[in-house]
Amino acid sequence: MSTFILRSGVLILSFGIASEIVYQIYKKVKSRNNGNRRKFPKTEVLFFPDETVACKAYFTDDYGCKNSNCRFSHEENSLSKLFTYLISARISIDVCVFVITCSDLADLLVKSHKKGVVVRVVTDNEQVDVPGSQIWKLRKAGIPVRIDNSSFFMHHKFAIIDQEHLINGSFNWTQKAITGNQENILITNNEDIVLPFISEFEKLWLKFDPNQN
Amino acid sequence: MSTFILRSGVLILSFGIASEIVYQIYKKVKSRNNGNRRKFPKTEVLFFPDETVACKAYFTDDYGCKNSNCRFSHEENSLSKLFTYLISARISIDVCVFVITCSDLADLLVKSHKKGVVVRVVTDNEQVDVPGSQIWKLRKAGIPVRIDNSSFFMHHKFAIIDQEHLINGSFNWTQKAITGNQENILITNNEDIVLPFISEFEKLWLKFDPNQN
To answer: Which stretches does the record call C3H1-type zinc fingers (chains A, B) (predicted)?
Structure first.
């Protein structure tokens, strides 16, 4: 009988410890991953340059940043907010951006694609082969990329998240745009603004279909 | 007495003819100058390229286009709408644009400046001396222009009309952006969007004050 009580006690104690561990992990993930869960306003305007570079892991990974000597910023800034919009996608991300050389932003597209989010990219031929271009990484990951091969620029810099949020402005997806240039991004779910951009994306997606040209 | 009646008749007839002439001119100006008087929606999204180049005179001059063989378009398009926003300014136009080489748009700034509208321009040093740059024309007309002389880009492409309407997007003020490139402009009077841009303009206006640097 005393053995039974002892075993029951150990079982209850183990269960209690296990529960506490799970709860602590939950708390840690929750506090570390605030960005991912922040409530989006209807309209948000972001300006660059940021003074520091936001830590992608801290703001977008489920377990946050594991690097105790991380040299990137864990404070919210314009880039971290952009990260959280991109990582919030559950259905689709349509990207229509002139230059994509920022590996952190390209990595988020690949991550979303691997989770099953439908990612499509439209860009310009003049920028596909510039140093640091992320187009080949995107294609290697299986993300379809369509290219404007005309002599004019596909100069847009917008993305649409879940056909709901528009991200648009002067901001190309480059490192220089994050910490150097004067840039802006408007993010909104105002349908009067988002819907015309959804149509524009579909128009260009067809226009730059290599099978149509 | 009959001379008096005759003179009165001629006077009344002359007055009638003069009235008719004035009325016809008024009708002509009104119909030609529809653009200038169109009612602006709260939010408008414009895409480029336009298929034709809008006639600046038709959409912005009080007497419209006087050229019977005009080779420019008298049909409303994205550029004509941009013209009508710019020419609607009564108090101020703050321009913060990376490249300004389009003479039609620069001419509208000069025209507004001459009417007494306070025009201010912020731009980037890398673009000041490119072929077709309109910066010197603006300065010659007395419009103050402040320049980002850093190695990074002042890459914004926005303008604020009467502190009320924001014009913003991927669109630099170039001819190529009008009839060649894929571009967008969002125009809105939504305060949640306009006010941050007003602050950004004032910040950059001070930052690039040559007396402060």
So the answer is: 49-77
Which of A78, A140, A67 shows the shortest CA–CA distance to A106? A140
From the list A28, A66, A115, A155, the catalytic residue is: A155
Inter-axis angle of helices B103-115 and B78-87, to 10 degrees? 20
Whether A157 sits among the annotated catalytic residues: the reply is yes
Helix, strand, coil shares of chain B as percentages rounded to 5? 45, 20, 35
Are A211 and B183 within 8 A, CB to CB?
no
pLDDT digits (tens, 9 = 90+) for B91-148: 999 999 999 999 999 999 999 999 999 999 999 999 899 999 999 999 999 999 999 9
Q: How far is CA B43 from CA A102, A120, B190, B201, in A?
A: 31, 27, 8, 21
The Cα B131–Cα A109 span in angstroms is 38
Distance, in Å, from the CA atom of A122 to the CA atom of A148, rounded to the nearest integer, reads 8
What order of strands is seen across the sheet that includes strand A43-48?
A43-48, A183-188, A165-169, A157-161, A92-97, A118-124, A145-148
Taking only the tens place, the pLDDT of each residue in A44-97 is: 999 999 999 999 999 999 999 999 999 999 999 999 999 999 999 999 999 999
In order, the DSSP letters of A95-115 are EEES-B--HHHHHHHHHHHHH
Q: Give me the residue label for tokens 């997606």.
A: A205
Helices A78-87, A103-115: inter-axial angle, 10-degree rounding: 20
Domains detected in chain B:
42-208 (3.30.870.10)
Read off the DSSP letter of residue A54: B
Beta strands in A76-156 (DSSP E): 92-97, 118-124, 145-148
> What is the rounded distance in angstroms from the CA atom of residue B156 to the CA atom of residue B143?
19
Helix (H) or strand (E) holding A155: none
Please say if A107 is a catalytic residue.
Answer: no
ipTM for the predicted complex: 0.83
Q: Is B175 on the interface with A (CB under 8 A)?
A: no
Please identify which of the residues A74, A107, A162, A207 carries the catalytic annotation: A162
Nearest to B183 among A155, A169, A192 (CB): A155
